[in-house]
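Retro notes (design track)

What went well: tokenization of the new backbones is finally stable.
What didn't: we kept losing track of which sequence belonged to which structure.
Fix going forward: every design gets posted as structure first, then sequence, in one message. First example under the new rule, 132 residues:
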């Protein structure tokens, strides 16, 4: 896939995520992930998994409060493992949306949420440079 196509897919996904986040919280691993999403203009609720609770306790709280959540754990081995643990703990109680993780993993060269804004800026510069 070329840079322009990757950029278009990433920007479309970010726009869709921003819209979905208005009503649906996003689960991330830590503070740097929250900061990354805020830098992408996410204004809705963002929940940190690493908040002093076990995954099971965190999920019990989520299940009591939300019908669906967007899971944006990193797309490295640990992030996929956390995603599956969250999904297993919430199964039958809260819907886990993972579409954005797949789009970001497939269209970027980063393995974590916190690196996405920087990657996106560099990709935009690269595409603009090729347009000249």
């Amino acid at each position: 896939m070329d840079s322009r196509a990757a950029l278009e897919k990433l920007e479309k996904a970010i726009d869709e995520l921003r819209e979905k986040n208005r009503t649906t919280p996003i689960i991330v691993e830590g503070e740097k992930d929250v900061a990354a999403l805020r830098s992408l203009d996410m204004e809705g609720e963002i929940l940190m998994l690493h908040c002093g609770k076990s995954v099971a306790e965190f999920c019990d709280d989520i299940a009591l409060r939300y019908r669906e959540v967007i899971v944006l754990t990193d797309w490295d081995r640990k992030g996929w493992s956390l995603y599956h643990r969250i999904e297993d703990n919430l199964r039958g109680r809260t819907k886990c949306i993972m579409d954005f993780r797949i789009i970001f993993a497939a269209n970027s060269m980063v393995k974590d949420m916190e690196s996405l804004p920087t990657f996106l800026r560099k990709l935009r510069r690269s595409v603009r440079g090729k347009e000249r």
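Added context from the reviewer: Residues 3-20 form the longest helix (18 residues).
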